[in-house]
Amino acid sequence: MELTTQDILNCLNQRTRFALATIITSKGSTPRTSGSKMVVLDGQLYGTIGGGLVEAKVIETCLTMMSSPRCKIEKFILNQDLSDGLDMVCGGDLTVWIETFSPDPSPDIIQVFTAMTAQENVGKKAVLVSRIQGFSGASFTTQKCLVLPDGTTIGPNIVPKPLFDAIGDNQFSGTAPVIQNHNLEEFIIEPSQTKDTIYIFGAGHVGLQLAKMAHLTDFRTIVVDDRAEFANEKRFEHAHAVHVADLFSTALDELIHKKLSIDKNAYIVILTRGHLHDQAVLEQALKTKAGYIGMIGSRRKRDQIYANLIKKRVPQKSLDQVYSPIGLEINSETPAEIAVSIMGEIIQTRAQNQ
Fold first, then answer.
1. Is residue 1 exposed (0-12), middle (13-18) or buried (19+ Cβ within 10 Å)?
2. Average pLDDT in the 288-316 region?
3. pLDDT value at position 49?
4. Residue span of the structural domain in which 156 resides
5. Which of 201, 205, 303, 305 has the fewest CB neighbours in a 10 Å radius?
6. What is the pLDDT of residues 178-210, one digit of tens each?
7. Are 143 and 72 in a shared domain?
8. Which of 60, 75, 101 is the last residue of a domain?
9. 206, 342: one domain
């Protein structure tokens, strides 16, 4: 499982000593990309930066640093020995930022990571700013704050105005930390990484299995149905939210009204129990900026729904963007197999759109 901000907050609240390793840059045949994170505790790990010998070296460094709260940015070279150990043909290198946290974190740190977790839980972004200070040899300390999209700052006011304006202009929107200089000060800027969200319309057998697959592959999942006996938190225990809609014809509009984000990081899957419900959800979905819209059913059913929507002046160009019949062609039959084919198509689409 990917490391989440909630995992980091849990470690802080448990008052345990731990280290956080974040890949700043990666070059060559490295196992993970920039922005990947890992928490190292005494005898326990959360997340990964790729496994193998390079991760073992980072863990070793983390453990040697954990006696006191400090930071270090270090390059780990994937030389021939390491690349052989990782079963790679060529080498590369990782630049890793290692932070250690004491069992007695400051109230500011708790406040910052609590706010960041809250933002990510509702699919909203924020920018974590760490001001580098207290250089001692190769190590240093940091002071942190969180900048919200509306300009609110959580924690100490450490961000100079030019940098604050750049954050407000969305100049830091990548997936990796960025080291930024301002006058004689250095800052590490980290845009929060909200999980991609799968919206599952239809809480039947395929929807249930798809929600399980989405959880395993680190997607946020929101399930919608008009039947409370199907759409409930007990049945979908890993879903981020479960909504019982009055009507499928207004279900997606209701989610938007609740300020849930339907953008390029949203994946809409239409699996309702009937053609008319599928058509109603699809008509709403085509008005959004979702990165993926997929609808279950045969080609005959799809063509009939498309014909109905064209009569309602829905452009053919919009319909051409829909994945239907949904899922990769793997001859799937059972609900679980169909869910695998849908997840495969979503993951493939996400990779192609990056």
1. exposed
2. 96
3. 86
4. 107-191
5. 303
6. 999 998 899 999 998 777 899 999 999 999 999
7. no
8. 101
9. yes
